[in-house]
Design brief:
The protein is an alpha/beta fold. The chain has helices at 18-26, 52-65, 79-89, 111-114, 117-125, 145-152, 161-164, 191-198, 211-214, 216-224, and strands at residues 3-7, 30-32, 71-76, 94-100, 127-128, 131-132, 158-159, 178-184, 201-206. Helix 1 (18-26) links the parallel strand 1 and strand 2. Helix 1 packs across helix 10. The protein is globular and about 45 Å long.
Length: 226
């Protein structure tokens, strides 16, 4: 039995893992799906002041409050930056990192510095009051009407500082076994290239970026593979 901590990406909340988490629990594993500050049910006035460090501490607090050890720490998209910083600071508690179509950088890098120029330009145009507006479900591959309605009613604006604040890493995270899951076709985002640059073992899954909604069975199967 393993302990999984599943960390969502930008605009999402812990709710996005419901289908995947159930499959992991059915297989006998413990699963935690925290919602990061300012998002999902944690959305609140003043969320524009929340940054990447806040979110890393959110994940650290889950590990510490539940005294979790030998954790499989999973990050999707923006959550890749979050879990790498949290794992760097609590490396002794992490058995494995799994990054799903995720952003990942070294010390001092941020999502802004890693992202293609067109994406950063869109983020800047969509930002008001320190928050990035919710993108359409179609931008993450969700087009079926019921899935679109389910998704869009739950998404919340993302604090802009979470994309601009540089990652703070000591290097301890690079000693933790890590593998990547990349959605294909990958489109213009550099997730496959980032995983390759780090030298991580990579599996592909035929799905849009919101793989938790689009292919929960296939994703759970990949998470459970050694």
């Amino acid at each position: 039995m393993s302990t999984f901590v599943l960390v969502h990406g930008a605009w999402y909340g812990g709710w996005c893992w419901s289908r995947v988490a159930q499959r992991l629990r059915d297989a006998g594993h413990d699963v935690f799906t925290p919602t990061l500050s300012g998002l999902g049910e944690q959305a609140e006035p003043g969320a524009g002041m929340i940054d990447l460090r806040t979110h890393a501490v959110d994940v650290m607090n889950v590990l510490l409050e539940h005294d979790l050890e030998d954790v499989v720490l999973v990050g999707h998209s923006y959550g890749g930056l979050v879990v790498r910083e949290a794992a760097d600071r609590l490396s002794s508690r992490i058995k494995e990192l799994i990054l799903i179509d995720a952003w990942a950088g070294g010390d001092g890098e941020s999502l802004d510095s890693l992202a293609p120029a067109f994406f950063t330009a869109w983020v800047n145009s969509a930002t008001s009051g320190g928050l990035i507006a919710v993108p359409p479900a179609s931008s993450v591959g969700v087009v079926e009407p019921q899935q679109t309605a389910w998704l869009e009613e739950r998404l919340r604006p993302q604090p802009r500082l979470t994309f601009s604040q540089p990652t703070r890493l000591s290097g301890a995270v690079d000693g933790i076994p890590c593998r990547a899951i990349v959605c294909t076709p990958s489109g213009p985002m550099p997730f496959a290239g980032l995983a390759k640059a780090f030298g991580w073992r990579t599996a592909e899954i035929a799905s849009g970026h919101d793989v938790m909604t689009l292919a929960p069975d296939e994703l759970a199967e990949l998470l459970l593979k050694p």
